[in-house]
From TrEMBL:
SUPFAM superfamilies, alphabetized: Nucleic acid-binding proteins, Translation proteins SH3-like domain
CDD domains tied to this protein: S1_eIF5A
Name of the featured protein: Eukaryotic translation initiation factor 5A
Composition bias, Basic and acidic residues: 1-12
Recorded family membership: Belongs to the eIF-5A family.
An example molecular function term from Gene Ontology annotations: translation elongation factor activity
UniProt keyword annotations, A-Z: Hypusine, Initiation factor, Protein biosynthesis
SMART domains, per the entry: eIF-5a (SM01376)
Post-translational modification: eIF-5A seems to be the only eukaryotic protein to have a hypusine residue which is a post-translational modification of a lysine by the addition of a butylamino group.
Gene name of the encoded protein: LOC110803307
Translation initiation factor 5A C-terminal domain location: 85-154
Gene3D superfamilies in alphabetical order: 2.30.30.30, Nucleic acid-binding proteins
Amino acid sequence: MSDEEHQFESKADAGASKTYPQQAGTIRKNGYIVIKNRPCKVVEVSTSKTGKHGHAKCNFVGIDIFNGKKLEDIVPSSHNCDVPHVNRTDYQLIDIAEDGFVSLLTESGGTKDDLKLPTDETLLKQLKEGFADGKDLIVSVQNAMGEEQICGVKDIGGGSK
């Protein structure tokens, strides 16, 4: 019927790979959950008993893993919640640019230049001072739901003081 070729470019994924479902009653403290479309680390879970006609409810208190904001959600314990895929990757710090972006060395030997300096003051200070002192720094980058942020710094020795 038609000879033309159809090509679909999938630039935007439907978020399917960013989260997975997990029953609310099985999510524990220090786990992860999506609250108001933000990836959160669970800091408090309380479960209320079933009412006359209802489900037991789980009350989650979570801290957004990227901006530190406190979020809360109440979900029936038998329902599924979205849980983000959270990954941590370590990179070696190569450079800190004037515009606040960092240059990181990947395992394959390439560079990753799309990350900004962390907003956390202590982490920022640790990074800048260590870099100024010529230390070899390893940066931990946390990745969830399409967002990335530096979440830790380690000194692996070397450098001159």
